[in-house]
C-alpha cells in the first residue's frame, strides 16, 4: 500500500474522488498552493488494483486524486469549494458521462482533524440544494497510485476527455492561477 504520510514537511494531503480523475487532477494542479497532485484508486477492497480491476472487476475503489497542499498558502476549505464547483454533488456513482461506483464522489482524509472541516463544508454545501448531497466522506482506508499512463494524462493528451465543463475551467484560470 502506498498511503502517504498525513503531512510531509510543510504540506498536508487530502484525497478527492470526483468522477474521472484526469480532469479533477488537471484542474487542481493549476491552483496556487497545491504542491502536487497524483491520480490513483482509494478506499477499495483489493490490494494494488489496476485500472481494469477498478473498472470491471468490482474492486470497490474510487478514482481519486491525492492532493498535497501547503496550508500556509491555501486552506482545505478553499480546496473543497473548488472541488464542489467541478462535481455534481447530487449524483450517485456518476459524473458527466462516466457511470459506475468508481466514479462516485468522495472526500477521504488522512488527518482526523480534517474530518470536522469537511463535515462543516458539506453542511454548508447542503444549504445550496433541496436534495441530499451524495458526496462520500470518510477516513482514507487505502490509496494506490494509478498506472503511469494515467498520471498528468491531460498534460500529455490536451484534447483528452474531461467531464469538467470548459466554462468552469476557464473561470478557474481567471481567478486562481
Features:
7-stranded mixed beta sheet; disordered N terminus; globular; 9 strands; 177 residues; 31% helix; 24% strand; 6 helices; Peptide Methionine Sulfoxide Reductase, Chain A; alpha+beta
Sum up the overall morphology in one term: globular
Number of strands: 9
**How much β-strand is present in the residues?**
15-25%
How many angstroms does the end-to-end distance come to? 33 Å
Briefly note the structural class of the backbone: alpha+beta
CATH architectural category? 2-Layer Sandwich
CATH superfamily: Peptide methionine sulphoxide reductase MsrA
Low-confidence stretches: 1-7
Q: How helical, in percent, are the residues? A: 25-40%
Describe the structure.
By secondary structure, the chain is α+β, with helices and mostly antiparallel strands. The chain contains six helices and nine strands; from the N terminus they run ββαβαβαβββαββαα. Helices cover 31% and strands 24% of the residues. Helix 3 packs across helix 4. The relative contact order is 0.25.
Blueprint (SSEs and pairs):
Blueprint: E1 7-8, E2 11-18, H1 21-29, E3 34-42, H2 51-56, E4 62-69, H3 76-86, E5 94-95, E6 98-99, E7 105-109, H4 112-126, E8 136-139, E9 143-145, H5 153-156, H6 166-175
Parallel strand pairs: 7-8
Antiparallel strand pairs: 1-2, 2-4, 2-7, 3-4, 3-9, 5-6
Amino acid at each position: 500500500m502506498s498511503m502517504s504520510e498525513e503531512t510531509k514537511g510543510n504540506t498536508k494531503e487530502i484525497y478527492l474522488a470526483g468522477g474521472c480523475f484526469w480532469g479533477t487532477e488537471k484542474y487542481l494542479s493549476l491552483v496556487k498552493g497545491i504542491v502536487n497532485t497524483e491520480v490513483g484508486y482509494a478506499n477499495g477492497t483489493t490490494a494494488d488494483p489496476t485500472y481494469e480491476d477498478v473498472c470491471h472487476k468490482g474492486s470497490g475503489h474510487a478514482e481519486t486524486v491525492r492532493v498535497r497542499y501547503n496550508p500556509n498558502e491555501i486552506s482545505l476549505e478553499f480546496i473543497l469549494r473548488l472541488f464542489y464547483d467541478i462535481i455534481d454533488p447530487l449524483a450517485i456513482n456518476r459524473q458527466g458521462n462516466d457511470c459506475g461506483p468508481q466514479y462516485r464522489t468522495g472526500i477521504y482524509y488522512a488527518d482526523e482533524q480534517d474530518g470536522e472541516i469537511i463535515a462543516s463544508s458539506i453542511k454548508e454545501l447542503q444549504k445550496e440544494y433541496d436534495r441530499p448531497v451524495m458526496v462520500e466522506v470518510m477516513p482514507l482506508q487505502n490509496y494506490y497510485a494509478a498506472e503511469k499512463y494515467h498520471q498528468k494524462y491531460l498534460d500529455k493528451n490536451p484534447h483528452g476527455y474531461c467531464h469538467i465543463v470548459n466554462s468552469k475551467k476557464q473561470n478557474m484560470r481567471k481567478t486562481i492561477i
